[in-house]
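Is this the right way to post structure tokens for a design question? Let me know if I should format differently. Anyway, here goes:
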């Protein structure tokens, strides 16, 4: 049996987080799910954390989680990041390795995105100009 790949999952919406967490755990992933953006940022920047990729879910239009996701994306994490913008109101973000837009984004889309990112080697992210 192959070992499960560790993934960081962030979503501020409790119900959506638990649904996606459950679906991911049915696959070969060991998921660390968080609702707190500060905790997600800390985990994403932890050099000792063995995450193969991170998944950031933006669930509702015009909620504060959108700004928090921008902060997470800008934190300079070396792990590949998948942004799932179900609300469709985040501008394209250059810090994400892959972006899925819209309410029609299914678990199949998310799983396919994770598979692609898990095969990728970490690359340095561009830093924001001060």
């Amino acid at each position: 049996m192959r070992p499960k790949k560790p993934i960081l999952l962030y979503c501020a919406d409790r119900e959506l987080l638990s649904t996606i967490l459950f679906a991911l755990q049915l696959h070969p992933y060991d998921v660390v799910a968080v609702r707190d953006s500060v905790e997600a940022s800390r985990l994403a920047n932890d050099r000792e954390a063995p995450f193969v990729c991170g998944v950031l879910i933006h669930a509702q239009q015009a909620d504060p989680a959108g700004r928090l996701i921008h902060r997470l994306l800008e934190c300079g994490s070396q792990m590949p990041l998948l942004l799932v913008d179900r609300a469709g109101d985040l501008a394209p973000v250059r810090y994400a390795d892959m972006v899925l837009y819209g309410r029609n984004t299914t678990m199949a889309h998310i799983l396919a995105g994770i598979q692609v990112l898990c095969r990728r080697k970490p690359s340095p992210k561009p830093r924001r100009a001060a």
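Format looks fine. Someone answered above. Worth noting: Strands lie at 5-11, 29-34, 53-58, 81-85, 98-101. The helical segments are 14-25, 37-45, 65-74, 107-119.
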